[in-house]
């Protein structure tokens, strides 16, 4: 009996020891995981420097180009970690995509957007914010671009580390402006361009919110609030998918294949209309098959919006890649041209290897560091389901595509968050409207009404204030940091 008790006690001790070892292994893996990510990121940054050395050649300026490429790769990683979360967060928060699926879709379409349609916005970032001729020399211009690139990358990295949803576009614009002022005074800044960019920062979240609220109103009015929800969904969901397909086709025709064939705006819209109608007709039997056997209730509608939400997320990723690759490689492209040709006053010719650094860096940053902020955007601002997330993603895609077409470096963060707030505020308004209609002329108890309104605040006001504060501080913070870095670089170079 004593031996049996000893054996049992010994086995329990062994189990506890093995449990401690297992917990230690899990803890070690948890601690080591971030370091693996940092190691992979470091390898990518080094690879970007080697790529620059390979393509730029052995010249007296090659070291500067290598350093600039490293800074550009560093910035691209931070864009992937921060901005892409705004694109994929709604789909993940609505449980329409797994985290792995979202990362895979974003990586493919972000890279495609950057490589196919990213050129025009790069020109705006590199040449539209400051007047290059005011710099006086190519070396001064190069130092200013270096300071802007490093300052914006560092600021976005810091903000991502603390979980602040700042705009990478704001960071780059602030960095370029700060370095330009430090290099040549306030006259170096193109204040007209800055005014247009600043206006787009205000317009883009408002427009994104209005478009998202408009689509949600349409869905509720024509699908959710009708008696036969399934029949209404069969009628309208294919139309909504066709709208997305048409917008995507128009953008590709107008911007993506312009190096092969020139297509004007009217022709691109015609192409989009034709493909949109084709997709609409093709989706009719698909949605009909999906809807077979579904109950006539709102929960069933979420299933039917899975495909539109995934398509809209892919579209938004493409548009974001086209628009925000400029943040990573715009200053780098300007540096490469200034050092390679000595010309820093004319349009920037963007080397393909520079675009590759931006495109791949965004995808790598998303894969390594994106999940945390994807979860935050998808679930902590307001509650999303597939229908609401679809409205956010589609409105953001349309707004970003329009901005990229116009060459305006708008913030995808502003657009996406504006869309989320637009959906949430519309739901609050719609709930109050329906509640008043249901009550009719009956007076409500004040305490009950106040408590109900508090409970039904569907947008978290604390997040709204935090986000606005982050938006306000980013431009001056990046500008000051960039100016200080420029002074330091010039001092060391001199």
Automatic annotation (TrEMBL):
Transmembrane segments: 35-56, 63-81, 141-160, 172-192, 198-219, 231-253, 265-283, 303-322, 350-369, 389-406, 412-429, 464-490
Localization (cell): Membrane
GO biological process, one term: phosphate ion transmembrane transport
Protein topology in the membrane: Multi-pass membrane protein
Any GO molecular function: phosphate transmembrane transporter activity
Record-stated family: Belongs to the inorganic phosphate transporter (PiT) (TC 2.A.20) family.
Protein name: Phosphate transporter
Species assigned in the record: Vannielia litorea
Taxonomic lineage of the native organism: Bacteria, Pseudomonadati, Pseudomonadota, Alphaproteobacteria, Rhodobacterales
């Amino acid at each position: 009996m004593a031996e049996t008790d000893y054996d049992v006690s010994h086995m329990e001790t062994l189990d506890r020891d093995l449990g401690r070892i297992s917990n230690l292994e899990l803890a070690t893996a948890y601690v080591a995981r971030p370091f693996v990510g940092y190691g992979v990121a470091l390898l990518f940054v080094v690879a970007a420097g080697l790529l620059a050395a390979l393509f730029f050649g052995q010249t007296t300026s090659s070291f500067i180009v290598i350093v600039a490429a490293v800074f550009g790769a560093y910035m691209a990683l931070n864009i992937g970690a921060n901005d892409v979360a705004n694109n994929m967060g709604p789909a993940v928060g609505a449980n329409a995509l797994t985290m792995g699926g979202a990362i895979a879709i974003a990586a493919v379409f972000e890279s495609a957007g950057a490589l196919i349609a990213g050129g025009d916005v790069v020109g705006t970032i590199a040449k539209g914010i400051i007047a290059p001729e005011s710099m006086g020399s190519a070396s001064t211009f190069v130092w200013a671009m270096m300071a802007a690139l490093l300052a914006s990358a560092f600021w976005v990295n810091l903000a991502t580390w603390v979980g602040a949803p700042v705009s990478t576009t704001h960071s780059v614009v602030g960095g370029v402006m700060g370095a330009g002022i430090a290099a040549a005074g306030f006259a170096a800044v193109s204040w007209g361009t800055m005014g247009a960019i600043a206006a787009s920062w205000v317009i883009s979240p408002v427009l994104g919110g209005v478009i998202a609220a408009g689509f949600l109103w349409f869905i509720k009015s024509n699908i959710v609030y009708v008696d036969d929800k399934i029949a209404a969904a069969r009628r309208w969901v294919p139309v909504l998918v066709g709208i997305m397909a048409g917008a995507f086709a128009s953008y590709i025709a107008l911007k993506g294949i312009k190096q092969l064939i020139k297509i004007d705006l009217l022709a691109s819209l015609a192409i989009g209309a034709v493909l949109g109608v084709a997709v609409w007709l093709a989706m009719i039997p698909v949605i009909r098959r999906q809807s077979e056997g579904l109950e006539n209730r709102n929960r069933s509608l979420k299933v039917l919006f899975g495909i539109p939400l995934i398509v809209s997320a892919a579209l938004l990723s493409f548009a974001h890649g086209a628009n925000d690759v400029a943040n990573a490689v715009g200053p780098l492209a300007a540096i490469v041209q200034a050092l390679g040709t000595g010309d820093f006053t004319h349009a920037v010719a963007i080397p393909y290897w520079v675009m590759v650094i931006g495109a791949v860096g965004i995808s790598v940053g998303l894969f390594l560091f994106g999940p945390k902020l994807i979860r935050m955007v998808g679930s902590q601002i307001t509650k999303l389901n597939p229908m609401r997330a679809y409205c956010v993603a589609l409105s953001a895609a349309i707004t970003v595509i329009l901005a990229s077409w116009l060459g305006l470096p708008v913030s995808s963060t502003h657009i996406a968050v504006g869309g989320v707030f637009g959906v949430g505020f519309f739901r609050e308004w719609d709930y109050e409207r329906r509640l008043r209609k249901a009550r009719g002329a009956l007076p409500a108890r004040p305490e009950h009404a106040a408590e109900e309104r508090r409970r039904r605040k569907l947008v978290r006001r604390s997040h709204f204030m935090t986000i606005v504060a982050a938006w306000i501080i980013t431009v001056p913070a990046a500008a000051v940091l960039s100016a200080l870095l420029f002074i330091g670089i010039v001092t060391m170079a001199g």
